[in-house]
Amino acid sequence: MNYIVFDLEWNQNPDGRRHPDSRLPFEIIEIGAVKLNEKREIVDTFQCLIKPKVYHWIHDSIHEVIHVDYHELEKGIPFPRAIRRFLEWCGEEYRFFTWGDQDVMELQRNMKYYNLLKLMPGPVHYYDVQKLFSIKFEDGISRRSLEYATDYLQLPKNRDFHRALADASYTARILLEIDEACMIRHPSLDVYQNPKSRDSEIYISYTDHDKFVSREFVSKERLMKDRTMVSTMCPICRCPAKRKIRWFSTNNSKVYYSLALCHEHGPVAGKIRIRKTDEGKYFGVKTLRAEDTEAADEIREKHESLRRRKMLRSQEKI
């Protein structure tokens, strides 16, 4: 099994929000990667500039950060050839590592644009080194920049940041500071290639929580009426937990919370994130955590705050 630590640089519409291609808001212009073996030893690197097809000039803010101009990119290779070369370099068995959760999704979005998603069947299991850094060295919630983490661990900075291979190299060095046990306990799942039917829905049991990814629905309302989506089962004993606070949303209808009670393992904190597909449909990602009193207290606080706001609004109407 190869560990592939990769980073992407991408461009966007140089005119800002005017006339963007909705199918490809971010066009990948560089892939950089570091390959580690199962002993977590660095054995190879990969770097490739990609010739743009959609956005033919570099957005000003991106040019300031990555210092690549259009003439340099014109010497690159087309994305279809680049992605095939990259995946061949990865080897037969590999697992992705990235800094943050966006690169895996954007890689698939670019592949979809060129009808190449069959080369990377989803959902994609990977490891988010940014998240692992937070879990290992901080509070597990904060998300730091790559340069911050590099400085925190006092790693040498011998390359400029914001180039794909350089950032992949820094990410690989940070990964080596995180023990494998921590890494294995906290995998990530990208659901850009979401389930389309009931049979393809995803159930995953981790060491401390369960995750469920639903099929597609035509509306958020139908999604939140699905019995499987709104069920609350204890992740430890698999018994139905009694609902104490029904599913509710605070400031928007993209995230819902609930609180249930397992007679044996205590509070079960629930969270549903609603995602919208490129085709305008909806699916949900549900997380259930047991024996997490801190999460349970946060949900109670959110629910009480929502109740107070509703009460104030009703009083203002009188």
UniProtKB/TrEMBL annotation:
Q: Which InterPro entries match?
A: 3-5_Exoribonuclease, ERI-1_3'hExo-like, Ribonucl_H, RNaseH-like_sf, RNaseH_sf
Instruction: Supply one GO molecular-function term.
Output: nucleic acid binding
Q: Mind listing the UniProt keywords for this protein, alphabetically?
A: Exonuclease, Hydrolase, Nuclease
Q: Does the keyword Hydrolase apply?
A: yes
Question: Where is each Exonuclease domain found?
Answer: 2-184
Pfam families tied to this protein: RNase_T
Region Disordered, annotated ranges: 296-318
Coiled coil start-end? none
Recorded hits in PANTHER family, A to Z, give: 3'-5' EXONUCLEASE ERI1-RELATED, 3'-5' EXORIBONUCLEASE 1-RELATED
What name goes with this protein?
Answer: DNA polymerase III
Species this chain originates from: Blautia massiliensis
